[in-house]
Amino acid sequence: MNATTSAYSGRILVIEDDDSTAEEIVAELTSHAFQVDRAGTGNEGLALALSSGYDVITLDRMLPDIDGLNVVGALRARNIQTPVLMISALSDVDERVRGLRAGGDDYLTKPFASDEMAARVEVLLRRHAQAAEPTQLRARGLLLDRVAHNAFYGDLDLDLKPTEYQLLEFLMRNSGQTLTRTMIFEAVWGYHFDPGTNLIEVHIAGLRKKLEQAGCPPLIQTVRGSGYQFGPA
Amino acid sequence: MTSRPARPSEGSAALFSELWRITSFRLTALYGGLFALAVVCLFALIYWQTARYQNQQVDQILRNQAHVFSSATSDQLDDDIAYEIARDIRHISFFGVFAADGRPLAGNLARVPHELVLNGKPQALPVERNADLFAQALEIRALGQTLDNGNVLVVARDVAVLEQIRQSLLRGCFLIAAVILLLGVLGGVFYSLPAVRHIRGIDRAAQRIADGDYSQRLPLGLRNRELDVLAQIVNAMLDETERLMGEVKTASDNIAHDLRTPLTRLRASIYRTQQSLEDSSPHHAALNHALTQTDLLLARFRALSRISEIESKRRRAGFSPTPLQPILRKLVGLYEPLANQGEVRLTLGAGADAIVDCDGELLFEAIGNLLDNAIKFTPAGGVIRVELDIDETGPVISVADSGPGIPSDLRKSVLQRFYRADEARNVPGSGLGLSLVDAIVRLHGFDFVLDEASEGGVRARILCRQQRPTQ
Ligand SMILES: Nc1ncnc2c1ncn2[C@@H]1O[C@H](COP(=O)(O)OP(=O)(O)OP(=O)(O)O)[C@@H](O)[C@H]1O
Ligand SMILES: [Mg+2]
């Protein structure tokens, strides 16, 4: 497994006033083959975001000149829909809600693991790139029916429970990307606390078992130290 | 919340015993009693003095009369006696002249009174032995003396007035003593009731402090100076304790917060090293181990920060009326695979739904921690029961397991940060789960109770009191 294998390279704008955090973000994203620009203030960031098209913006919530919330607000007011990952030292649940309500697409609290940050950027990028959501997802004979909320391997009905379906859908939609346990927990269950290691693992194990019983090849990989990834090994 | 000792608040007997514990009441009652006693003594003295004075007066009269009579001639004596008797309109004077053989010669006495010593000195006569002589008299003083001619002269006087004085004094004395006692008790009650109320307030506040609410202070009364001085001292001590506890907490929170950034960097560099290794490298296992340990540490610090974040949260911004059953169903769905893996059966009791004003996400997290514990500590083959009941206090969420349980003396300690029972050594965890639950429950103004489940293990309950706590 290598961090630079990402197939979705793109242009990223990092708006962050703290130098060491910015360096960390830029280094990590560059290692994922992204082209990265950095802005140190809100105004500078806003100007850059307005002048050239970026695929994703990472935005510090606390900037010296303007509040991060206002930066997103200004972008959205000018109908710029570039996905924004808000990064903040404020971990309060209410803060997250405010960030997302202002127009942010995802929220990460400091300090964060840089691989998790990169994973979230990739998911945002992918979501943004998919113009229309397909009603079916396919991989190696596995078919996810997003209308019937079920999956089939060949003709075999996997008979997924609602949670299992949501889990598989999240994995397949972001196929080829590393998804951390927290990201999975947030996407499938909608909660933002630390689910612990085992909890998500047993759900993945259950899903793997269902796929295996249907004769499906192993499609859910464990990414050491990070999380999981859907796709052929 | 611990059980409280029964408070003697009902019944007048109970109120009295409570009053009796108050010094001011005891003092007033005691003073009342002493004062009444002093009044009785005073009255006794007055009576004694009056009686003595009265007796001296009477005795002087008797002596004077005897002197007059004894110095008169026989003819004069009869007239004198007749005159005196006629003059005595109150019928309190008795006179008699008797021959040596006791035959009455003059006066209004039929015979010489019994037990009269003929020594010329005034003396008290036993009335009951001489009832025939002094019909209605209550007390008689008399003087008898042998005249020069051998006749016997008896002068006596009814001192009923003394008895009357004694009786009215006695009556007055009792009346006044009763009034004083009554006033004493009433005054005591009047002065002590505020103290009783004050002490009850102190009792309540002290209970809350003992239950761990260090923001409580003892109330100050209006009149109870001594109690107030004490309460102020205790309050100052509480201020200091709260400040110190706050400092310790802030210090540990700051440590947790400050260590998170370097730990995250450490984790990143381990991670990057691991990523740069060939898949076949023999160092994977060691790096994986380092990564897992760092993650554990990070999770621990995150949990610490989270607890203090929730504890310091004053706003109830995330609160909205939330149905509980969907939360429980979602939780059971989330934890069921974990329970199955541990061969424990997780069931959700069917019951009515309840809507509670709460932060659904935090409540989910709290119950999730209870489920995590139940699954962790319940051995294979056990059961875990999640239930939603409605009782008089409001909805009650309970998670009961068939595990080893928590001994009753540890039920308070396990809520402390990092506290883990000795038996939990072999089970992974950092002892922060229940602290988080407690913080979340407190934020809501709910109650968190740990006791024994009918299955033998822990029964953890969140009592969702509906009324809004005052904040
Ligand atoms: N259901 C239970 N059965 C038996 N003991 C329990 C149970 N729940 C808690 N305890 C005891 O209380 C202690 C504290 O629990 P708490 O949830 O705070 O910590 P933990 O579970 O050990 O660690 P963490 O929750 O941080 O992973 C536990 O270590 C255990 O000794
Ligand atoms: Mg726990």
Task: Describe this protein with a few key phrases.
heterodimer, A: 233 residues, alpha/beta, Rossmann fold, Arc Repressor Mutant, subunit A, 5-stranded parallel β-sheet, 8 helices, 12 strands, B: 471 residues, alpha+beta, Helix Hairpins, Heat Shock Protein 90, 5-stranded mixed β-sheet, 9 helices, disordered N terminus, binds adenosine-5'-triphosphate, binds magnesium ion
How would you describe what is shown here?
Chain A is an alpha/beta fold. Chain A has helices spanning 19-31, 42-51, 68-77, 93-101, 114-129, 162-173, 181-189, 197-213, and strands at residues 11-15, 35-39, 56-60, 84-88, 106-109, 136-139, 142-145, 150-153, 156-157, 178-180, 220-223, 227-230. In chain A, α2 packs parallel to α3 and α6 (162-173) packs across α7. Chain A is elongated, with a radius of gyration of 18 Å. Chain B has 471 residues and is of the alpha+beta class. In chain B, α2 (23-71) runs antiparallel to α4 (160-210), α5 packs antiparallel against α6 (284-312) and α6 (284-312) packs parallel to α9 (433-444). The complex binds adenosine-5'-triphosphate (ATP) and magnesium ion. Adenosine-5'-triphosphate is lined by residues 373-374, 377, 401, 403-406, 414, 419-421, 424, 429-435, 457-458 of chain B.
**Helix share of residues of chain B?**
40-55%
CATH topology of the largest domain in chain A: Rossmann fold
Mean pLDDT score of chain A: 88
Low-confidence spans of chain A: pLDDT under 50, at least 5 residues?
1-7
Average pLDDT across residues of chain B?
Answer: 85
Percentage of β-strand residues of chain A = 15-25%
CATH class of the largest domain in chain A: Alpha Beta
Major sheet of chain A: size, sense and barrel closure? 5 strands, parallel
**Radius of gyration of CA atoms of chain A, rounded to a whole number:** 18 Å
Biggest interface reads: A-B, 33 and 43 residues
Named once each, the bound ligands are: adenosine-5'-triphosphate, magnesium ion
- Rounded to the nearest angstrom, the distance between the terminal CA atoms of chain B is 18 Å
